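Cross-check.
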Amino acid sequence: GDDHGFSPLHWACREGRASVVDMLVMRGARINVMNRGDDTPLHLAASHGHRDIVQKLVQFKADINAANEHGNTPLHYACFWAQEQVAEDLVASGALVSICNKYGETPLDKAKEPLRDTLRGAPPF
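Predicted model, tokenized:
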């Protein structure tokens, strides 16, 4: 850990280190561990656009709709940071586009064009 409560898995996901993610998970790292802001490793991989790591974490059964202290899910982060492919992958894997954060915003509200158009067609809309 560190001052932000990042685990080694948080750092590996943030920095895009897929081989380190594999090693940590194989050695028993908790997939849904939260930092001080309640972000999971999936939040960090999604916000930084590390598509390969997002897919790994989903395969490892990460909570795809985990909400942090502000109610933001990994999909909120992917949308806010315009990580279009990651957002599409998350939705295809079951991320809900209708979850509101603590400010009443859905991932769609956080998305910038053209990602907003892509998400409009996603269930349950």
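The domain at 8-121 is CATH 1.25.40.20 (Serine Threonine Protein Phosphatase 5, Tetratricopeptide repeat). DSSP finds eight helices and no strands in the chain. Passed to J.P. for a second look.
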